[in-house]
């Protein structure tokens, strides 16, 4: 391991993700905006986060809420102006926080001038900026790939009678990264933002930018309508080359250390190590999806019970793989995932607060850079959407239409959306118990969760046992406690079905984390509890070293001066007993 002092700043940082549409509305049109965010910066400073990652605010037709960009160098009027963004950057910087922008460059909007030019004629100079294929004699698309948002990944464009590729919606045509002019245009745009004061990029589906030669058909999984193209476009043949080129042209020469996070659906541990090995100069960290797919079947709509042992095995594998080389991002939530407290926790009134703080304790004490998604720090829950009309997300609406078209009963189709829809994460931030939750003075673009009367910012600020205060404490530990920042990770009781226990270790310190991830009490095992020292953090008001973990109880203990004994316990694989 490199010297602790040489470590880049983001290794001790916590990132807070803002979904601008749903965070704070300053002008009463029911949609969140930049000025709304700027007005809430003291709130973020009080929580203690170091970085804000902003989901896209660029000019966009909003087909996919801004992940379809028509001008990379302007702000969408829905969210404000470039001047508002400059103000936000200044406000963040003056509070010691940084700004990471979303970079969506696997595709643009079909309304981006690059695409309107490209589609205008086969001879247009921008034709080769996108992925076009001629019409065959069979009338079928060029290959069998499906779009992530239902239907085929190809659209036949009337203007020239050719097909273009769109891995997402038909309003999100894929750029052709094989064309050096495309790469240069993206790199120039990134430099323009860094010059403006931006501190980093979260790169949307960045492992999809290199497609396999010939765009071969994918295998068709049993029961699926389309072939799975992912093996031919996820981490494709030139991905490392493109990312290294971007690094050398955009980041290498800059005075500041730019933070880069690559969103990478389907990325393996082995690939992630390559992407984040500092010696290779590609990315700082990736978002992987293994742990958020363990309660899913063949598709994201197919929900199943989570086996905690499988979750632990997965996260442990990532911790181990990145111990010497590379770096992990840590997250439960984002704008694409249902709320973790409803999914991995228990959002009933009896357990909501404790299961939210239990999950946070597990995640934040792993080695890596934690991400907090807006409202997670309040324990915000999935939304009880009542009817199809309550949903906004095109992925959900398309899925519903697709399966009803195939013969599903509407009620059954609606039931698949409830636990899995991305809209669960997109309901307005709950600032207070008032009308529209203090998010807006007008009716919001998507309904406010009815539980905002209890679950809101105003309530927990005064309550030392709130989810919010627990997050604040975990964030402070990341900043102040060397073993949380740098310690090595070892999993305990890997086969236990309720207990998530691990240690973090440095030369002179050891932290023992024991969390009951269930609504039943469990006996944590005398061996571990006996060795426990000082209590660092708990989520019950009366916590102390104890052998019983109550429902969703989290205990963080420092085992100073007794490292060898505790290490022996780790080596011996102490398996706590159930009561
Ligand atoms: C990423 C984004 C998601 C978006 C998709 C297409 O997965 O997180 O919100 O719909 O890419 O840009
Ligand atoms: Ca607004």
In short:
The chain is of the alpha/beta class. It has helices at 34-38, 41-47, 82-94, 113-120, 180-196, 230-233, 239-251, 269-276, 308-321, 340-343, 352-364, 394-405, 410-420, 458-461, 467-480, 482-486, 526-531, 563-571; strands at residues 15-18, 51-54, 58-59, 71-75, 98-103, 132-134, 154-157, 162-165, 200-203, 259-263, 285-287, 329-330, 369-373, 488-492, 499-506, 509-516, 522-523, 534-538, 548-549, 554-558. The structure holds alpha-D-glucopyranose and calcium ion (CA).
Primary descriptors:
binds alpha-D-glucopyranose, 29% helix, single chain, 579 residues, alpha/beta, disordered C terminus, binds calcium ion, 8-stranded parallel sheet, 5-stranded antiparallel sheet, 20 strands, 18 helices, 15% strand
Topology of helices and strands:
Elements: E1 15-18, H1 34-38, H2 41-47, E2 51-54, E3 58-59, E4 71-75, H3 82-94, E5 98-103, H4 113-120, E6 132-134, E7 154-157, E8 162-165, H5 180-196, E9 200-203, H6 230-233, H7 239-251, E10 259-263, H8 269-276, E11 285-287, H9 308-321, E12 329-330, H10 340-343, H11 352-364, E13 369-373, H12 394-405, H13 410-420, H14 458-461, H15 467-480, H16 482-486, E14 488-492, E15 499-506, E16 509-516, E17 522-523, H17 526-531, E18 534-538, E19 548-549, E20 554-558, H18 563-571
Parallel strand pairs: 1-2, 1-13, 2-5, 5-9, 9-10, 10-11, 12-13
Antiparallel strand pairs: 3-4, 6-8, 7-8, 14-15, 15-16, 16-20, 17-19, 18-20
Bound molecules: alpha-D-glucopyranose and calcium ion (CA).
